[in-house]
Amino acid sequence: MSTTRLLVLGGVRRFGRAHGYEVRRELMSWGSDEWAHVNPGSIYHALRQLAKEGLLLAHEVEESEAGPPHTDYEITDAGRAEFLRLLRCALATIDIRHPEMLTAGLGFLTELPRAEVVELLRRRLDGLAEWRASVAPHLDEQDPSDHLRELLGYWVHSAESATRWTRGLIERLESGAYTMAGEAAPA
């Protein structure tokens, strides 16, 4: 999975049609350069690559009073499908090597229906339970004088903390937090 792909597809999708600077400005305002290691160059590269793959349409805009020539991007049906696939994976999958995928997915949480997000998060809980269960026995087997116990303890603690947070998010969603896809905005 690619965090940059998810962020760029989602950014363009939110705008409807946008040029690279708009997408970059939006993603940088989220701090994505810090937590997802997405730099401006990778955003522009992703825009061009996603257009080459047919996930975005590139529209060349000539110089005008509004500004210099640039390229506007618009998401295609294939791009929408890829965005939703990446978003679903980000919310449901445990990947300790790439926690930024979940963070990116949370930025687009409301792009899916409430019931679907809750189901994806329940799958995430299953994955966290499996991860914890795979690590915890090794912690008990580890020699108490071996400092590597701390690594295993950290992983167990991380799984438990992520489980508590995920359960809390499910509770908030089930209580009606946020306006999700297909729902009317509160009056």
UniProtKB/TrEMBL annotation:
Residues 14-83 form the Transcription regulator PadR N-terminal domain. Pfam families: PadR (PF03551). SUPFAM superfamilies: Winged helix' DNA-binding domain. Gene3D superfamilies: Winged helix-like DNA-binding domain superfamily/Winged helix DNA-binding domain (1.10.10.10). It comes from the Bacteria. PANTHER family: PADR-FAMILY TRANSCRIPTIONAL REGULATOR (PTHR33169), TRANSCRIPTIONAL REGULATOR RV3488 (PTHR33169:SF14). This is PadR family transcriptional regulator. It comes from Actinomadura bangladeshensis.
